[in-house]
Amino acid sequence: MSDFSQALIENSGYDRTGFAAGYDRHRPKPPRVLLELLSRYARAEPPKLVVDLGCGTGLSTRAWSGLAERAIGVEPNPAMLAAAESAPGVEFVQAYAHATGLPDGIADIVTCSQSLHWMEPWPVFAEAARTLRPGGVFAAYDYDWPPIIDPELDIAYEAYQERRREARRRRGIQRGGDRWPKDGHLDRLRESGCFATCREVVLNSIEEGNANRVVGFARSLGLPAAAGDDPELERDLDIAELEEVARHVLGDRTVPFLFGYRMRLGVR
């Protein structure tokens, strides 16, 4: 693992007290249609084994419970794993995505859910290909943010995002997407030579949410959003402005949040 990748983990803010629980509560879960599509594409209904790389708190791993015979979530951050809940057929291991320690050719499906931009892609592609059986599928999928809720909230989210970008610039903080942007995942997947065929799929998911979830989702975005013990950073980010707009727009209502997903596939 490069010094850059190690620094991302150390500076992510994901190990702060209480962060993992908020992440697990406010982030979206992968839609069932995405999981069913992967199962069909891998010609495994149900999959015998799914490996979920960079699983965080296990949101994207637990989603396979009842759909796959077995799912393994792989995550290097012990604070995130500590918040991972158990589910039938689901287990977790602490390891890096490029060095899982799993045997060759055992997985039908290997996934990176909202996580590939945190990783050095080429070693991860090689590890995914090694652990997949012939015809197995690697999938890196990400959701667009913010979710589609209301145009006034879109403006408030973008203003908040600009404050985050400026805070990172002033503090010299990098995030995964600065080096490996998500819009380059498909090209890098093809260039790796690890997969017989590659393609992109676009779909969406709808979950319920309210003003509290708008704020919780913003805080779950990682560095430097997890600012709780840094008053200066809290002032710079000014989440209160976003919260004010969310409460003005939504009041006490719970409404549909539409998340757009982009999935890049590689067939072993």
Lateral arrangement of strands in the main beta sheet: 3-2-1-4-5-7-6
Q: Termini, distance in Å?
A: 24 Å
Q: Class in CATH?
A: Alpha Beta
| Secondary structure: number of strands | 7
Structural class from helices and strands? alpha/beta
The percent of residues in helical segments reads 25-40%
Shape: globular
Rg for CA atoms: 18 Å
- Assigned CATH architecture: 3-Layer(aba) Sandwich
Average residue-wise pLDDT: 91
Strand content: 15-25%
Please name the CATH topology: Rossmann fold
pLDDT below 50 for ≥5 consecutive residues: which ranges? Answer: none
Task: Sketch the topology as an H/E string, one letter per element.
Answer: HHHEHEHEEHEHHHEHHHE
What would you give as the CATH superfamily? Answer: Vaccinia Virus protein VP39
Characterize the biggest β-sheet.
Answer: 7 strands, mixed
Number of domains: 1
Number of helical segments with 4 or more residues: 12
In a nutshell, what does this entry contain?
The protein contains 12 helices and 7 strands.
